[in-house]
Structure formats: C-alpha cells, structure tokens
C-alpha cells in the first residue's frame, strides 16, 4: 500500500519535462520568488520556521512560474516529493496534517533546474543533499545522490544500463582525501572536472578554451566512440556529442577523453594572422581524403574545424598546415584573428560599459579581434526560445560552422557582449535568428551603443509572424535548410535602409494606470482595435500556459481560435466614436467608415504576411513626396516603401476582412492617409500593439515621429532560402 502510494505521487518523466518547460519560460528566479516568505512578503503567513505549508507552496509555484493555474495534481506530487525527501523512510505514507516542506529544499531543487553557472549549481546540489547540515556528504547521502542522478538520466533519455557503477566511482573519486565523506569544496572542485555530473545537472561545461561542450544525443545511424572506439549502442540517447566539433563519446568515456576541442583564439600576438588547420577526429566514413583521394574508413579520419576538409589521420602531416577557412572564409572569425590581451593593453573603454567582462577568458585576459583582410565576419545572435526547439538547434549548428566566439545565445546577457566584442571591426554583418521582436531588440541595442559603423542586419526567421523577414525576402519561417546556404544568401544580399519611428504615449489621466507600453520604437507597425485585441488575448493566454505555445503551427492555431471568438464578440465595434487621427493639425475623416481597428504601417506585411496597404501599379505611383496625403483619389496612387520616411494608415472593418486580405480574396484594407508624422487621441481604454507586443491603454494621446534608419540586408530571392513565404 505504501509503495503504491509513493508511485502514485512520484514525479514522472512527463512531469519533469513539463516542469522544465514552465521554468524555461519564466522570467523569475527561485531565490527572488522565495522573498515573499520573508518578513513583509505576501506569503509570510504560510511560513513556520524554515518550512512552508501546502497553500504557500502552491502560491509560490504560481508566482515563480508566472502562471495562475499551475496543474493541481502536479503541484501535489511535487509537494509530497519534498516531504518524502525529508523522511527517514521514503515509503512512509505522508499524513494529511503535515509539517510542510523545507524552504531550503524547494529553493535548491528549482535553482538546479534553472540556467546558471556550474559552481553555483554544484553548491545548490550540495546543500540539497546535505540533509543534516553538517557540511559533509556521508555514504547515505551519496547513495541518495546516485539514485537521484539515475532518475535524472532516465528523464533525459540516457541509456542507464551501465551508468550506476560509473556514478558511484565518479562520486568516490570526488572524495579526494578518502575520508569516506565529501566536503563542499571537494564536491565543487571534483564536480567541475566531472563531465557526466555536469551534463546531468544541465550545466555548460566549457570553462576554458579547448574544452568540449557536451550534449546528450541519440544517433540515428551507426556511430563510434572516439575514446574506446566501440559503437554507440542503446535504444535511447547513447552518448555525448560536442556542440563545437561533433566529437562523440560514451557518457562513461567522457572523463577518460584527453582530446582537446577546437581552439577559439590565440594566446600570443605572434600568432595573430598565422592561419592553421585544427584537425579533430570526426565521422568521415565514405568521404574521400583530400590528399590521397581514397575513401576514409571508420575511425581513421580527421576534419578541420574551420575549412571542414577531411583527411586520413596518416595524411594530416603530408600537406600544408595553413587553412583558408574553406567555403565560409569571408564569414568566419578564425582563432588567429582573436588574441588574448592583458586588460592594461586592450582598448576596453567601451560605450557598452561592463559588457567587456563577457569576453574575458578563464585566465583573466581580454579577448580582442584583429581583422582579417578581405573578410566580413558574421556576428550571429540566436534567441533559443524562438520557433519551439528550432532556436537551440540553430545555435548548435552555427557554433559548429563558425567560431563559437562569434555566435551569441541571447539568453546569456543579451546582444551587448557581442556588439562590444565586434566594436573595432569596420566591416561585419549581423544575423539575427529569431522573430521580429528579437530583431527589434538587436536594433535597439545598436542604437544605444552609439556605434560609428552600424552593421547591416540579416534575419533567419524563427518567430510566428516574421513580417519584417518576409518584406526583406528572408521568408516566413525557417524550415531546416542547410545553414551554409543561408550564409551564402547573406553574401549575395543587398543593403537597404529601413525607417524606424518613435512612439510617445501621453495618458489623459496620469493616475489611470494601464499596462506598461512594451516599446517606444516602431519597426514594423502599430495598431489599435480588433487585431490588437486578438494579440492581447493571445499574450494573456501564453503568459498563463507557456507550455501550450511552443511551436509556430500551434501558435497560429491559437490565433485562429481567438480570431473566431473576436468575430462573434466584436469587442472593438464603433471605434471611430472613441478615436481620432490627425497629421500636422489636419484631421482625418473617419465618419464614412465602420471600423473596428486602425493600423499604422512601416512595412508592407502584417499578421504574418498580409499586405494591408495593397499594391500600387507603377503607372499610378505619385512622383512627388508629400508630407501628408489624405485625399481618397491621391491615396490610390501612393505606394509604400520602408525607407521613404512616411507611414501608411489603414482602417480595418472586422476580423473577416483581415482574413479576406490574408487569403487574397480582398486586395487591401481602407487607405486612410500617408504622412510623415501622426497623432492619435483615444477617449476610452483600448487594446493596442506595437510590432506584435500588445497592451491595454487607458485614454491617451499618441505621437508618432520619425526616429532614424537602420541598415538591413535584403535577400536576393525567397525561393532559395528554405523558408516558407506564408
């Protein structure tokens, strides 16, 4: 009966994955959410001593994970899990009236699941398993760690057949003085040098240049371990693969590996500009050696990390050691172009302040770029949360194709460290892998950095709408094409200017609190009314249930469902009664139309591919630039351009009309005006959105004026990119 109860309330692999998804989408750290249990906090009355009750635990989860309805059954299983971890007998049935759960255990557990640096996470795990708080892990506590790590390995898909003895030996080795107990210092120092432990804890291993960055992988075809040279066997994830060089090992062989990963910089000024191959053991089977032109057999080949040419291991020394970086030579930032400098010798006085700290290596040296002639390196920013799991895959692929030093995960400090690192380059391009919001983030960062040479920006669309990417011919969404082809398209792209606009919102009543305005710059569009209402409902639902919005297709289905509901409710009917528009003092007549929304357009795409302004035939286009155009006949001849320093405003009758334009049943929305600046006044609370970010705005006056122009890259064609258009 007791065992049955324990199993019923155990955390299943599905629960574990669901919990990780919640944590991934939350912006709050566990240690910050815990402050509500301290004096003056909202949840302090649910605390007694160093424990919290069941209600307090439930409220903590809702606050920490930023949801209003965390699954009650999962909450209960988590609660019992923490209770059982404190009991001497794990099968003991918990009582209904209990002593709560330990604040320390809850904090440590969730802190381990969050992103963080290895040292902090190892400290958290030590505190979690040191049940008697004596600063030592005894044999029982070590056994508990092995059990928990076995469970974690199963959750993560490891083949655990031979893992348990490996884990025991690993933890025994951490006991440096062989005292039978492990101190916190031994645990941290030993853990930092123990790859399976770090991978199980979800930590980034690369502390120094030349260290592999491992990830668990399921190999779809016969693959061999480069340490023991045996095949990777198992039905689940059979081993580890390095993100940077694709070196593969069994998880049990990882600590035995002595082969270095690629070097990403040089340590002496004398090495700057001295190109050299970096040969790594690789799966070269069936490929031909570039020296002897014979096929390379299993485990007998090496591949250069930079030019990706392949040779037999015996043929490596038979030819020049100089490397030209192969097909991507104009885009790669090779290690001989990056040097470790003393802080006193480097020009670290940057307008980006302390961001240079992100580019200091483990030896305390500042990394500085020394440009290679006739190259235009690519600075890659990846939003790993965009496009479901696409962002993470794209991040890994670019880390392999290019120098990892030029590929930045935006979850780790945002774009400023990358911009600072590239600041002394006069010629380079930026590739933003994410949605339109991610692109806006990068453009804002470039503005704030006050850069003398503003780099042009290309887009790999990973978001849901991707309207800006569509306008620049990068397509409506990345579909997994070879990233080498994407880089070639960037090389063939054309530089274009894109207008950017300042938005100022002045509330009628300063005491009337609404939602915060998400941004004060318009890159794509601004709207009020029906489409903003749908976007706001979508935003609220995604905040409550982030796990339901993890793919582009699923997001579009939610949009369709919400649009259908809005069609029935028509929450923004008679919009003209509570909204006015004027340009340079000229009012716009809205009386002739029955509108549910208005949209202010900077680019010819909205709602994931709708051209609301419509096309204007060349024969009809006006030749003269006008500051304001409101005449109906003149508007028919006004074309739209993202760099003409003009905005276009259209009226939307309903959700049905939006659908008709999207599907091509209707050519365009109602053209209201074209102007160089716009003022909108509202007399009631209305839904609004700026570049897809919605909010509810009380009565206000809105001023939209031209800010500047951004350098963007337009792809030569959409067809060859492997990105769909609609």
UniProtKB/TrEMBL annotation:
<feature type="domain" description="EF-hand">
    <location>
        <begin position="117"/>
        <end position="152"/>
    </location>
</feature>
<keyword id="KW-0106">Calcium</keyword>
<dbReference type="InterPro" id="IPR002219">
    <property type="entry name" value="PKC_DAG/PE"/>
</dbReference>
<keyword id="KW-0863">Zinc-finger</keyword>
<keyword id="KW-0067">ATP-binding</keyword>
<feature type="domain" description="Phorbol-ester/DAG-type">
    <location>
        <begin position="276"/>
        <end position="323"/>
    </location>
</feature>
<protein>
    <recommendedName>
        <fullName>Diacylglycerol kinase</fullName>
        <ecNumber>2.7.1.107</ecNumber>
    </recommendedName>
</protein>
<dbReference type="InterPro" id="IPR016064">
    <property type="entry name" value="NAD/diacylglycerol_kinase_sf"/>
</dbReference>
<keyword id="KW-0547">Nucleotide-binding</keyword>
<keyword id="KW-0808">Transferase</keyword>
<dbReference type="InterPro" id="IPR002048">
    <property type="entry name" value="EF_hand_dom"/>
</dbReference>
<dbReference type="InterPro" id="IPR038199">
    <property type="entry name" value="DGK_typeI_N_sf"/>
</dbReference>
<dbReference type="InterPro" id="IPR037607">
    <property type="entry name" value="DGK"/>
</dbReference>
<feature type="domain" description="Phorbol-ester/DAG-type">
    <location>
        <begin position="211"/>
        <end position="261"/>
    </location>
</feature>
<dbReference type="Pfam" id="PF00781">
    <property type="entry name" value="DAGK_cat"/>
</dbReference>
<keyword id="KW-0677">Repeat</keyword>
<keyword id="KW-0443">Lipid metabolism</keyword>
<feature type="domain" description="EF-hand">
    <location>
        <begin position="162"/>
        <end position="197"/>
    </location>
</feature>
<dbReference type="InterPro" id="IPR018247">
    <property type="entry name" value="EF_Hand_1_Ca_BS"/>
</dbReference>
<dbReference type="InterPro" id="IPR046349">
    <property type="entry name" value="C1-like_sf"/>
</dbReference>
<comment type="pathway">
    <text>Lipid metabolism; glycerolipid metabolism.</text>
</comment>
<keyword id="KW-0479">Metal-binding</keyword>
<feature type="domain" description="DAGKc">
    <location>
        <begin position="373"/>
        <end position="507"/>
    </location>
</feature>
<dbReference type="Pfam" id="PF00130">
    <property type="entry name" value="C1_1"/>
</dbReference>
<comment type="similarity">
    <text>Belongs to the eukaryotic diacylglycerol kinase family.</text>
</comment>
<dbReference type="InterPro" id="IPR000756">
    <property type="entry name" value="Diacylglycerol_kin_accessory"/>
</dbReference>
<dbReference type="InterPro" id="IPR011992">
    <property type="entry name" value="EF-hand-dom_pair"/>
</dbReference>
<dbReference type="Pfam" id="PF00609">
    <property type="entry name" value="DAGK_acc"/>
</dbReference>
<dbReference type="InterPro" id="IPR017438">
    <property type="entry name" value="ATP-NAD_kinase_N"/>
</dbReference>
<dbReference type="InterPro" id="IPR001206">
    <property type="entry name" value="Diacylglycerol_kinase_cat_dom"/>
</dbReference>
<dbReference type="Pfam" id="PF14513">
    <property type="entry name" value="DAG_kinase_N"/>
</dbReference>
<keyword id="KW-0862">Zinc</keyword>
<dbReference type="InterPro" id="IPR029477">
    <property type="entry name" value="DAG_kinase_typeI_N"/>
</dbReference>
<keyword id="KW-0418">Kinase</keyword>
């Amino acid at each position: 009966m007791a065992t049955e109860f324990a199993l019923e309330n155990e955390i299943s692999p599905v629960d574990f994955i669901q919990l990780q998804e919640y944590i991934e989408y939350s912006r709050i750290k566990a240690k910050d959410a815990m402050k509500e249990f301290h004096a003056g906090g909202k949840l302090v009355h649910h605390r007694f001593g160093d424990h919290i009750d069941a209600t307090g635990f439930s409220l903590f989860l809702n606050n920490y994970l930023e949801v209003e309805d965390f699954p009650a059954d999962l909450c209960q299983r988590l609660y019992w899990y923490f209770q059982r971890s404190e009991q001497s007998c794990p099968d003991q049935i918990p009582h209904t009236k209990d002593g709560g759960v330990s604040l320390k255990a809850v904090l440590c557990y969730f802190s381990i699941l969050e992103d963080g640096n290895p040292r902090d996470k190892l400290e958290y795990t030590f505190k979690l398993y040191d049940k008697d708080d004596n600063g030592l892990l005894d044999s029982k506590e070590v056994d508990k760690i092995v059990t928990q790590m076995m469970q974690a390995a199963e959750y993560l898909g490891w083949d655990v057949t031979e893992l348990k003895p490996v884990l025991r030996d690993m933890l025994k080795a951490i006991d440096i003085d062989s005292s039978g107990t492990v101190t916190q210092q031994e645990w941290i120092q030993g853990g930092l040098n123990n790859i399976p432990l770090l991978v199980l804890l979800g930590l980034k291993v690369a502390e120094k240049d030349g260290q592999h960055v491992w990830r668990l992988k399921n190999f779809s075809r016969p693959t061999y371990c480069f340490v023991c040279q045996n095949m990777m066997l198992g039905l689940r994830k059979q081993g580890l693969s390095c993100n940077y060089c694709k070196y593969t090992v069994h998880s049990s062989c990882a600590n035995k590996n002595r082969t270095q990963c690629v070097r990403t910089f040089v340590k002496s000024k004398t090495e700057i500009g001295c190109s050299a191959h970096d040969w790594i053991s690789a799966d070269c089977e069936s490929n031909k050696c570039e020296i002897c032109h014979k096929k390379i057999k299993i485990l007998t080949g090496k591949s250069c990390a930079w030019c990706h040419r392949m040779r037999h291991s015996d043929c490596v020394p038979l030819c020049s050691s100089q490397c030209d970086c192969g097909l991507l030579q104009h885009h790669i930032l090779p290690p001989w172009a990056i040097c470790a400098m003393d802080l006193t010798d480097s020009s670290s006085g940057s307008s980006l302040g302390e961001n240079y700290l992100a580019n200091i290596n483990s030896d305390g040296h500042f990394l500085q770029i020394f440009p290679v002639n006739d190259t235009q390196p690519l600075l890659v920013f990846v939003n790993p949360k965009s496009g479901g799991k696409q962002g993470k895959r794209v991040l890994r692929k670019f880390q392999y194709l290019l120098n990892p030093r030029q590929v930045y995960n935006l979850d780790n400090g945002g774009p400023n460290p990358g911009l600072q690192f590239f600041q002394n380059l006069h010629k380079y391009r930026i590739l933003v892998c994410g949605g339109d919001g991610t692109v806006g983030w990068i453009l804002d960062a470039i503005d704030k950095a006050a850069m003398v040479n503003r780099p042009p920006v290309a887009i790999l669309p990973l978001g849901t709408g991707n309207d800006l990417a569509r306008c620049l011919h990068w397509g409506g969404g990345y579909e997994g094409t070879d990233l080498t082809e994407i880089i070639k398209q960037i090389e063939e792209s054309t530089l274009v200017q894109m207008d950017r606009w300042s938005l100022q919102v002045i509330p009628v009543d300063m005491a009337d609190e609404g939602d915060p305005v998400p941004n004060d710059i318009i890159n794509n569009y601004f709207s009020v009314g029906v489409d903003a209402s749908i976007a706001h409902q979508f935003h609220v639902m995604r905040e409550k249930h982030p796990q339901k919005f993890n793919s582009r297709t699923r997001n579009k289905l939610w949009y369709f469902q919400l649009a259908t509901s809005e069609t029935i409710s028509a929450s923004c009917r008679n919009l003209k009664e509570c909204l006015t528009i004027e340009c340079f003092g000229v009012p716009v007549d809205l009386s002739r139309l029955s509108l549910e929304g208005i949209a202010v357009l900077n680019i010819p795409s909205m709602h994931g591919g709708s051209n609301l302004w419509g096309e204007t035939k060349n024969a009809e286009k006006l030749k003269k630039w006008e500051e304001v155009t409101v005449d109906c006949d003149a508007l028919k001849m006004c074309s739209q351009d993202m760099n003409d320093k003009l905005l276009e405003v259209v009226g939307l009758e309903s959700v049905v009309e939006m659908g008709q334009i999207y599907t091509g049943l209707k050519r365009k929305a109602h053209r209201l005006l074209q102007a160089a600046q716009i003022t909108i006044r509202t007399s009631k609370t209305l839904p609004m959105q700026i570049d897809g970010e919605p909010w509810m705005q009380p009565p206000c006056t809105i001023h939209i004026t031209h800010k500047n122009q951004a350098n963007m890259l337009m792809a030569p064609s959409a067809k060859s990119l492997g990105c769909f258009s609609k």
